[in-house]
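Notebook entry, structure prediction.
Reason for the run: the old model in the group folder had no record of what sequence produced it. Starting over properly, with the input documented here first.
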Amino acid sequence: MVLKKSLPYLIAEIGQAHDGSLGILYSYIDAIAQIGVDAVKFQMHIAEAESSEHEPFRVQFSLEDKTRYDYWKRISFTLEQWKDIKQYCDRAGLDFICSPFSNLAVDWLEEIGVDCYKIGSGEVNNFLILEKIAQTGKPLILSSGMSSYTELDQTVTFLSGRNVDFSILQCTTAYPTKPEYYGLNVIQELKNRYNVPVGFSDHSAKMETCIAAATLGASILEFHVVFDRQLFGPDAKASLTISEAKQLVPAIQNIAIALAHPIVKNNNEAFVTLKQIFEKSLAINKKLPKSHILTFDDLEAKKPKNYGISASSYQSVIGKKLKSNKEQWDFLNEDDLL
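New structure, fully documented this time:
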């Protein structure tokens, strides 16, 4: 992928959370710009091109729209409005990423001037739109949510044959996704199978999910955001709130820093001073006379290190005699033993 401001590359998705309101949409962009992500993601729905009056509701959530087609029409924007949205994102310092759901939407996005496309789970085997995107020469992020490996194999072969620069996201098409369906194991499986950048698209509404994906090496992380999960919209319950996203981003960045700096466990030179403080020396736990034969019950370990025999060597002193009287809590050294 050419879009690499940070690793992992962080995408906050507005999706349909704007509910057709430009005012709400711009408010989301302003809020997302303060989170620290790399990109903001949209969905471009052009009702006439992608749908019909026969499309059923995925979930009957709308009290305002008679059909899904009516919903797409109500929440859509004109090409000129989309151009303004793209420019606003540019000024906010956010990459503009959008999922097209029709070939006409690809034409619009090319006129707008996008650098990258995102394909939703339902379009993975839509080779018509994939061909259209391949002709643009732009990189592509592919969500694998509803696809089997057999289907993904076909799509990967299709894209590879057209020299498309693409990445794949593990995701689960369930809103919100329950923990048993996160599929975090699939991240490594996708890496091994396709040898392309692999990420995670989250619909869990839980911060820990993306943190776990980052720990497992996801190079792209996408999550929906919403001002409040009580708001209207098909994805609201599967989204993070803006305040949660603000907490999530530095957590992911810290994980990325940790992964980029592996610890060499056999090299503990950095702890020499601390080891001197925290490690312990053998001492006597009671007053003992000269010629006393030491037992385990006579011993204590006390800080600091190197003031007596190392506590790790306690077995070497058991059964030995004292050369002289010892006071309670005296350190025990080799010179004290016969």
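Summary: The chain has a mean pLDDT of 93.
The old model has been moved to the deprecated folder.
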